[in-house]
Amino acid sequence: MNKKELRNKYLKMRKNLQYEEVEKKSKNIIQKLMDTAWYRQSNTIMSYIDFRNEVITRSFIKHALKDNKRIIVPITDMSSKILILSELKDFDNELCQSSYGILEPKKEYVRVVSCNLLDLVLVPGLAFDTSGYRIGYGGGYYDRLLQRLPQKTITIGLAFEFQIVGNIPVESFDRKVDFIITEERIIRHEH
What we know:
Structural class: alpha/beta
Oligomer: single chain
CATH class: Alpha Beta
């Protein structure tokens, strides 16, 4: 299957999940994440805000804020095709829906942060392979971000077990994540 076919297949599969199943599996994934040294030792964490049956990150973000972690969320800049990184301090009051329908900071709460400050980045995806490659929504936003990150930054894909596939077709601009956490396991990418 090519990327477009894989993207459509996994988008449809994820869309068909019942919310209760998404919630239950997400809690398991987030607990695994929070039990890691990567989480405990990180000061500045970038997290996507879940959308359309992605692994739910909202409760994680609120918990991390209470844990005194700096939380950074992405803003999709369609003109430059990059993710602008903004610090979030209050999940309940600082966000609104973007044109994509994704929660992003309201203009008055945009606090731009350099990607060089990130210790840990949580990456969404429609499918991942055990080498750490992913299929996103096709805009290349996360690949461009992953390319800009310092070597020290740990990148973790959050996915449901059914989103792990044999092999994803790879192009020159594709970037791997270091780890993938599903409800069943933590995958260190195989070389």
